[in-house]
Automatic annotation (TrEMBL):
InterPro entries: Endonuclease_Zinc-binding_loop, His-Me_finger_sf, Homing_endonuclease_His-Me
Official protein name in the record: Zinc-binding loop region of homing endonuclease domain-containing protein
Highest taxon in the source lineage: Bacteria
Highest classification ranks of the organism: Bacteria, Pseudomonadati, Pseudomonadota, Alphaproteobacteria, Hyphomicrobiales
SUPFAM superfamilies found in the cross-reference section: His-Me finger endonucleases
Residue span(s) of domain Zinc-binding loop region of homing endonuclease: 35-98
Length: 163
């Protein structure tokens, strides 16, 4: 994914939507729209996770892989303070990363695809369904069609994965 539009003006606009009043060590909550608790930044018609953008900007990593998870040390999903953020990977078993950061790649602007779900995804989805997450919300988040989530929910698919 090429992150276009990450210029000075965009950055400035981005940071103006982050509440940095608490000082350098405090959490910097995103002041605008959130999605599943995470700040959502809209840039040129695409939605991005705000904290992921903050980490991309602070580490100059503008083309992170989907497997690069933007994680919070502070477990505050709205927080965009780069010192509270770090790049993790799928091996990290933090709920913060595993459950939601997959959707830190652009979401909402593309039609659902029949993406292949990994065993780890399915485990997470089962867990989230149990916790009351909606089928359509999970479908959006994992970038799959709703029937894929429905199949997991009904137990017709992925039976070998324990919830
Ligand atoms: Zn924080």
């Amino acid at each position: 994914m090429r992150f276009v539009g990450f210029d000075e003006a965009t950055l400035e606009r981005f940071w103006s939507k982050v509440d940095r009043a608490g000082g350098p060590d405090a959490c910097w909550p995103w002041k605008r729209t959130t999605h599943n608790g995470y700040g959502t930044a809209r840039i040129r018609g695409r939605n991005y996770r705000a904290h992921r953008l903050a980490l991309m900007a602070s580490t100059a990593k503008f083309n992170p892989l989907p497997s690069d998870f933007a994680c919070h040390h502070c477990d505050n999903p709205r927080c965009c303070n780069p010192t509270h953020l770090y790049w993790g990977d799928a091996k990290l078993n933090r709920a913060d990363c595993m459950n939601r950061s997959r959707a830190a790649i652009p979401f909402g602007s593309q039609p659902p695809r029949n993406t292949k779900l990994t065993d780890e995804d399915v485990k997470n989805i089962k867990h989230r369904l149990k916790a009351g997450s909606s089928v359509s919300g999970l479908a959006r988040e994992f970038g799959v069609v709703r029937s894929a989530i429905q199949r997991i929910k009904s137990g017709r698919g992925w039976q070998h994965i324990a919830a």
